[in-house]
Design a protein that fits this description.
Strand content: 5-15%
CATH topology of the largest domain: Rossmann fold
Radius of gyration: 26 Å
Number of domains: 2
Mean pLDDT: 80
CATH class of the largest domain: Alpha Beta
Oligomer: single chain
Largest sheet: 7 strands, parallel
Helix content: 40-55%
CATH superfamily of the largest domain: Glycogen Phosphorylase B
Distance between the termini: 43 Å
Shape: globular
Number of strands: 15
CATH architecture of the largest domain: 3-Layer(aba) Sandwich
Length: 475
């Protein structure tokens, strides 16, 4: 028991304590074994490992995970955390692409929850992905013990991953999947940024935003809530969403180029009430002449909705999910959708008019407030999703027919959407994230002990600074 107590109470060397910097930073700079040194397990008289040349960096993120580079290397290290829905991950993918476009030597990694939608969204992205055991806080008291267990477990998983990756900046993408990694990043000494595209901050973002260095927002009202940390940037949109053409979209879903298209989507998880309202509208009234439907049902609803369309005369393409939403948007002329922040950002960026049916069961009703904010710009119509299905679909039919039958109204809404969109939000956020990373690297360099001195720039990579111990040759 005595030896066990001693092992747990080993303190780092006095020099590291006096300078108040994590010992792992010094040790990784010298390329020592961090665990053995930090725990005081190197025996007296044993020589320290020699300096080694850094292995060449692979341009592919998956290869970097297998052979992670050391702390003080060329390129910044950005960690993005979120998940639970596609709307919490698609903006992160847009930020990652923009970061690598601005700094190709940057290393980018993700963490997400264990939900299947997270795996589906990030599959094939090429980035290192870590799943953590986060789960949302339920309303029912008997679910709280499971939440507490997952909260503790996800915190440990996030801390371990951040010790391995050693990021300069941790970016929270919102939702319960972002809390543990961002909180661990704040304790780790990394800069932290929060993406808050919703008009009302969620619980995780409200807590994390108190200590975050930047909070990127889509609505001016939200910027004011976060004070001097808030930045009005818009919500990032993936380049693939913006690059698709109408011909590609129509061909991808087998749609008629001579007809206009109504796109129906319930976002990445689908929406039962949206599906039912649209099917009831089409069964009772159909659409104006010259229109067709592209309906993305969600995996759970696909069979039922597809069967209903066999009885409907309106031409339609029914799919459970679109791997490339840019193609669906490119084929569309009018959209019926939920009013999630990512959906709004994408529709505004591509200039699509919409009838929004906000999710009705959020406590703060933030989707309804977002839909009304876009409606005030003239780019959309906000429709309340009521418990009475018959009343909902009748009001949907009235609004959809009014817009679809008036080409001038449709054109005005599309123009207003394009004017309100922020298609370069990802580039602006990436610029600010890299700016935060530069500040962290400068602080770490300034805090290094006197034994570790800059050895000057590398000829091949002008931005790289090699580090040596006093008395050694250049690394």
């Amino acid at each position: 028991m005595l030896s066990l107590a001693k092992a747990w109470n080993v303190r780092p060397p006095p020099e590291a304590r006096q300078r108040r910097i994590p010992l792992c930073i010094c040790l990784r700079a010298l390329k020592f074994e961090p665990r053995a040194q930090a725990r005081g397990r190197v025996r007296p008289g044993r020589t320290t490992p020699p300096l080694e040349q850094t292995a060449p960096r692979s341009p592919h993120p998956a290869a970097r995970r297998r052979n992670p580079p050391m702390l003080l290397e060329t390129g910044r290290r950005i960690f993005l955390a979120g998940g639970g829905t596609g709307g919490h991950l698609y903006p992160g993918l847009a930020i990652a692409e923009a970061v690598l476009a601005q700094e190709p030597e940057a290393a980018v990694a993700f963490s997400c929850t264990r939900r299947p939608i997270d795996r589906k969204v990030l599959a094939g992205s090429g980035y290192p992905v870590t799943e953590i055991s986060a789960r949302p806080l339920g309303k029912r008291p008997w679910t709280w013990p499971a939440f507490l267990a997952s909260f503790i477990r996800s915190g440990g998983e996030a801390r371990r991953r951040l010790r391995e990756f050693c990021p300069d900046v941790v970016v929270g993408l919102g939702g319960f999947g972002s809390y543990a990694p961002v909180r661990a990043g704040q304790r780790h000494g990394a800069a932290t940024a929060i993406l808050n595209p919703d008009i009302i901050p969620g619980r995780a973002n409200r807590r994390l935003g108190r200590r975050a260095d930047r909070v990127f927002c889509q609505f001016q009202e939200t910027v004011e809530a976060f004070g001097d940390r808030g930045r009005l940037t818009g919500c990032p949109v993936r380049p693939s969403v913006l690059a698709a053409t109408r011909q590609e979209g129509l061909a991808a879903f087998g749609l008629d180029p001579a007809r206009r298209t109504l796109l129906v989507t319930g976002a990445s998880l689908g929406a039962r009430s949206v599906n039912r309202a649209v099917v009831a509208m089409l069964r009772d009234r159909g659409l104006p002449e010259g229109w067709q439907v592209l309906h993305l049902t969600g995996h759970g609803e696909h069979g039922e909705v597809a069967a209903a369309y066999r009885e409907i005369k309106t031409p339609a393409a029914v799919r459970p999910y679109a791997e490339r939403m840019g193609l669906a948007y490119a084929a569309a002329d009018l959209v019926v959708a939920r009013a999630g922040a990512s959906t709004i950002a994408e529709l505004l960026a591509v200039g699509l008019p919409a009838v929004y049916m906000p999710y009705p069961y959020h406590r703060d009703q933030h989707q309804m407030r977002q839909a009304r904010a876009v409606q005030a710009l003239g780019a959309a119509i906000a429709l309340e999703d009521r418990p009475d299905d018959a009343e909902t679909w009748r009001r949907l039919a009235e609004m959809a027919w009014a817009v679809a039958s008036d080409a001038a109204w449709l054109a005005r809404m599309a123009e207003a959407a394009r004017a309100a969109g922020r298609p370069r939000a990802a580039q602006e956020i990436a610029r600010q994230v890299l700016e935060l990373a530069d500040g962290v690297v400068e602080r770490r360099h300034a805090a290094l002990p006197p034994q570790i001195a800059p050895a000057g720039p590398n000829v091949d990579t002008p931005t790289h600074v090699a580090y040596t111990r006093t008395g050694d040759e250049k690394a």
